Amino acid sequence: MSNSTAPIHESAALLYASTDFAKLNWLELQWAAWYLWIDNPIIATGLMSFLLHEIVYFGRCLPWVIIDATPYFRKWKLQPNKIPTAQEQWECTKQVLFSHFTIELPAIYLFHPMAEFFGMSTWQVPFPPLSSIIPQVAFFFVFEDMFHFFAHRALHWGPLYKHIHKVHHKYSAPFGLAAEYAHPAEVFILGTGTLAGPLLYCAFRRDLHIFTVYIWIVLRLFQAVDAHSGYDFPWSLQHILPFWSGAEHHDFHHMAFVNNFSTSFRWCDRFFGTDNKYREYRARIEAAKKAGMSPEEFKAMEKKFAEDAEREGIEAEKVVEAYRYSLKTKAA
């Protein structure tokens, strides 16, 4: 797949002058039609990137909003006594939109030049084959998970937590819309992991198409929203792929404040021992299941375990926040 050597300000008509449209599939034709319609590759790439993010994010959140409003699904709610209210969901949505329109939208003019600077194909058709797309997306998942693990742990350090990451921890029982409820600085920090993988890959390999990056971003958005959904269904992916984190893994992080810093996988937390309290919690739940309790007794016991974990988390959060206070006291 060749990369663009044409100046980025050239019109789409010139960019596609030597393209044989008869050999393109339907999706590739729509891709070219978009660039031809906008007639400015910088705006076309930036606007498509922004619209993709908004449509996929809120489109994926919508089913979870409906599920939260439907009592039938409470049996699978990880924290069934904490259902987000319509007011909470609206306040969350406003903060998410604020971040999107103050950070992402102004940066749309940077997407195309940055992509081409790293040698990424943008307007070009045809698209790369699946044999290229699948391993690239797999690499992006692994890279982002490792980046997120270390960045997320750093955000739990006193000053960074108190002034940045605490915003995201507003909800001890997360819901889909809260996936990107965060301080703008956190959006930038953790968002770097999503984009750095493709950019670094492209800088070394120079065979990446932005279409592949869009597939990666769509899957990453699904993962982020689902991990914050607060539901663990029997058909959830973690029951099929045991190394997948999922909502059951990440929900504990919001409830207990500690442990489970990864996004997609459980590997880093297991390797660095940052899932010890989580595994103890799950072991207590499993032991209670085998104790022959009635459904009512088990629910009461499960609620107690969750309350204990949350209470310990509140104390752990206080310790983290006090770290900044102790520095100010010492400086005085």
TrEMBL record:
All residue ranges annotated as the Fatty acid hydroxylase domain in the record: 138-274
Primary localization class, coarse: membrane
Localization in the cell: Membrane
One Pfam family this sequence matches: FA_hydroxylase
Coiled-coil region(s): none
Assigned keywords, A-Z: Membrane, Transmembrane, Transmembrane helix
PANTHER family with a match to the protein in the record: STEROL DESATURASE (PTHR11863)
Protein name: Fatty acid hydroxylase domain-containing protein
Organism of derivation: Somion occarium
Lineage: Eukaryota, Fungi, Dikarya, Basidiomycota, Agaricomycotina
